[in-house]
Amino acid sequence: MVNLGLFAYFFFNGIFSLEREIKLWHCIGGVGLIYLARYFFTQYQLLFIKARKELRQFYFTIVIFNIFIGLVIFPLNAFAAFASSVSGGVAMYIGLFMVVAIYLLRQFRGLFIGSKFLINNQFHFFIYLCTVEIAPMVILGKFFISIFF
Question: Where are the domains of the chain?
Answer without folding.
Answer: 2-148
